[in-house]
Amino acid sequence: MSARAWVFGDDVDTDAIAPGAWMKFDIDRLSRHCLEALDPGFAGGVRPGDILVAGRNFGCGSSREQAAQALKRLGLAAVVARSFAGLFYRNAINLGLPALECAQAGRIPAGAEIEVDLEAAAVHIAGAESLRCAPIPPFLLELLRAGGLLNQLEQRLAAARERKPA
Fold this sequence. Notes:
With 166 residues, the protein is an alpha/beta fold. The protein is built from 7 helices and 7 strands, in the order βαααβαβαββββαα. It has a 7-stranded mixed β-sheet with strand order 4-3-2-1-5-6-7. It is globular.
């Protein structure tokens, strides 16, 4: 299934993703202001399944988990960037938001129809080329398949309870 690419540049920080002025509100309200300083139409225009594409150091700045949470709440299927700030990357994966590092992310034009293949570590641009990305380690792919860290833990606990004799 292909999705529309929303393209941003380098050094997009967590304050742009989850503006500090909206941090005191719930995630639904906060997400309506996601990236508004860079693209006022983003939060209102993004559709479930769309993919955010960015340059280097995406998610730099503070460690606020709400940045990844706001992107997920908007329904993004994944974030593809040339590189990620470490804390953002881990927050995204923990929340079940795929984050794929792709050195050639700059080749993806805004509005392009793209498809992300996490297993193959590739981004396919409709009618154009496929870009190789850094593979996501198997244990993180497993975490993403589970829907994030909390879901994975709940699944493991449920499985352990089922194995336990009554």
